[in-house]
Amino acid sequence: MKKIILTMFAASSLLLYSTQAFALLNFSVGMPLSHTITGKESDGTEIKSDGVSGIFIQVGVPILPGIGIDSYKTKLKDKTPTVELATMIYNLYYLLPIPIINLTLGVGVGSTELQCSTCAALFDKGSASQWYASLGMPIIPLFDLHLSYRSVSSKIKIISGGEHDFSGNVMGLGIGFNF
């Protein structure tokens, strides 16, 4: 009986060595790779992204929901002067206790703002909401590399009337650490 219990423990340890189930704390940091804007300006003009930069951070404990923050800027294509869409979103997420992979599901709310030399006089600060999913694969024990997909809904009002829709999708890449 002792050998069976020891064998079962050893086998489960090998299968679950990289899962967050035995971790006390998980920490993740990532960066956006692309931002595709599916919304349009108030006159129906398509809005295009010309690169994105920023950071995603998450901290949590097993079984309980975790918290995170997304802060990134998206440069808008074909805009003179240069215009950036600054996004700040606060997240609540849950890391599902699945062996071998780390699957995270989350939601967030925050704000978006157009940044340029005259933007503050022309546009209000907008609200943003999102849902996201992240799939992580272990690279070594306690570390995982994950790819995330965020579906962001955002609108910014024009002070003189109307609004621009900056809704879209953000893809990100990050690394997680469970300890």
Question: How would you sum up this structure, described in words?
Answer:
With 179 residues, the protein is mainly beta. The protein has one domain (2-178): Porin, CATH 2.40.160.20. 11% of the residues lie in helices and 59% in strands. The protein contains two helices and nine strands; from the N terminus they run αβββββαββββ. It has helices at 2-16, 119-122, and strands at residues 26-37, 49-60, 66-76, 84-96, 102-115, 126-140, 143-157, 163-165, 168-178. Strands 1-2-3-4-5-6-7-9 form an eight-stranded antiparallel β-barrel.
Tell me the total number of β-strands. 9
Strand content: over 45%
Roughly how many Å apart are the termini? 32 Å
* Tally of contiguous helical segments: 2
* Major sheet description: 8 strands, antiparallel, barrel
Low-confidence stretches: none
Helix % is: 10-25%
Q: Widest sheet: strand order?
A: 1-2-3-4-5-6-7-9
The top-level CATH class is: Mainly Beta
Please state the average pLDDT score. 88
CATH topology: Porin
SS-derived structural category: mainly beta
H/E element sequence: HEEEEEHEEEE
Total count of domains: 1
Oligomer: single chain
